[in-house]
Specification:
142 residues, 2 strands, single chain, two-stranded antiparallel ribbon, 7 helices, mainly alpha
Length: 142
């Protein structure tokens, strides 16, 4: 998500400086897409959709539209932080090739015996019937 936030901040600043926000959702979304195309050019990110009809997405219910994007909760552009967070999530939904997920850790992974010995000494070697612990507290008292 951090890479999407960085891109979203850049896009927000570019649109704000170049064209400004008009509070017309379709026009603002089209301007955001123009800047998004410029921003991801030459990166691993690729758009999932060549063309998105934002007017259709805003009018039709989500079940009837071809592209499944929920645009009902677009925040006002005046709230920059909230808008950038929404834009980062939007970019994540319509692009591919971003940060890859880490593979889950397998449950049956076994460590070699020597790794355990080096990292964690066996209890028999370190405790010595509690003598080390008693010596530690005696040093603290003096």
């Amino acid at each position: 998500m951090p890479q999407y936030l960085k891109i979203a901040e850049e896009i927000y600043q570019n649109v704000k400086e170049k064209k400004g926000f008009t509070d017309e959702p379709v026009e603002d979304l089209n301007n955001l897409m123009i800047e998004l195309r410029r921003e991801i050019k030459g990166t691993k990110l690729k758009l999932l959709y060549n063309y998105i009809d934002f007017a259709e997405l805003l009018i039709k219910p989500l079940q009837e539209s071809k592209i499944k994007l929920d645009l009902s909760l677009i925040p006002k552009s005046k709230n920059s932080q909230e808008f950038v967070l929404w834009l980062a999530g939007f970019i994540e939904q319509i692009t591919t090739g971003g940060q890859e997920e880490l593979s889950p850790i397998r449950a049956k992974t076994t460590l070699p015996a020597y790794a355990y010995e080096k990292t964690y000494p066996s209890p028999k070697k370190s405790v010595n019937n509690g003598e080390e612990i008693i010596e530690y507290f005696k040093k603290k008292e003096s």
